[in-house]
């Protein structure tokens, strides 16, 4: 039987074994903290003995897409590399663990955009807003540039034409009430 606790234990063990293989000098994991408060976590903040911090994300649906053009781990790894090469503000992807469907990336801090907006002064919010908008513009430019390379990786029904058709069918009947 595999409940949330036992599956978390297997993932935590995989994190402890994988992190040293991804980093220079092979530092041991010193701390693993769940980012969410749910019973079955999917993102962890991982610290190592040398002070490195990583974000580790579990992709629970990765086994359903494995070895297909829309393989979740491959698509995320490939997309992160494209975005990084395009100078989009994205955490550095450190590696993946295919056996446990894990993605390891640079930790970028404990605050969310909402945290900053709720607790900062107007000047800081304006600076963060400008950075955020510029980041979205960089993502848009990178995706536009790399659309031919990414289009075939869309999950069936998630390509732009299908999404526009579906949203048109949903929004059309209620658009006069919006």
If helices are DSSP runs of H or I spanning 4 or more residues, what is the number of helices? 6
Q: Overall pLDDT, averaged? A: 87
Write down the Rg: 19 Å
For the sheet with most strands, the description reads: 5 strands, antiparallel
Q: Please give the share of residues in helix.
A: 40-55%
List the secondary-structure elements in sequence, H or E: HEEEHHEEHHH
Strand content: 15-25%
Low-confidence segments, given as residue ranges, are 1-6
Structural class: alpha+beta
Structure characteristics:
alpha+beta, 178 residues, five-stranded antiparallel beta sheet, disordered N terminus
Structure overview:
- The protein is of the alpha+beta class and 178 residues long.
- It is 49% helix and 16% strand.
- It has six helices and five strands, in the order H-E-E-E-H-H-E-E-H-H-H.
- The radius of gyration is 19 Å and the shape is globular.
Secondary structure: elements and pairs:
Elements: H1 4-22, E1 29-34, E2 43-48, E3 53-58, H2 62-65, H3 72-85, E4 93-97, E5 102-106, H4 113-119, H5 122-150, H6 160-174
Antiparallel strand pairs: 1-2, 2-3, 3-5, 4-5
Helix pairs in contact: 3-5
Summarize the structure.
With 178 residues, the chain is an alpha+beta fold.
């Amino acid at each position: 039987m595999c409940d949330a606790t036992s599956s978390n234990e297997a993932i935590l063990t995989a994190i402890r074994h994988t992190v040293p293989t991804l980093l220079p000098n092979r530092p041991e994991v010193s701390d693993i903290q769940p980012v969410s408060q749910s019973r079955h976590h999917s993102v962890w903040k991982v610290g190592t003995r040398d002070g490195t911090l990583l974000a580790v994300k579990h992709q629970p649906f990765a086994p359903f897409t494995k070895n297909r053009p829309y393989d979740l781990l491959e698509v995320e790894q490939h997309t992160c590399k494209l975005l990084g090469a395009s100078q989009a503000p994205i955490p550095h992807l450190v590696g993946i663990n295919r056996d446990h469907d894990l993605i390891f990336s640079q930790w970028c801090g404990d605050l969310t955009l909402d945290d900053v907006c709720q607790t900062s002064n107007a000047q800081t919010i304006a600076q963060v807003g400008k950075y955020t908008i510029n980041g979205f513009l960089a993502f848009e430019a990178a995706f536009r540039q790399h659309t031919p390379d990414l289009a075939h990786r869309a999950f069936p029904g998630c390509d732009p034409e299908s999404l526009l058709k579906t949203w048109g069918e949903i929004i059309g009947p209620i658009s006069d009430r919006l």
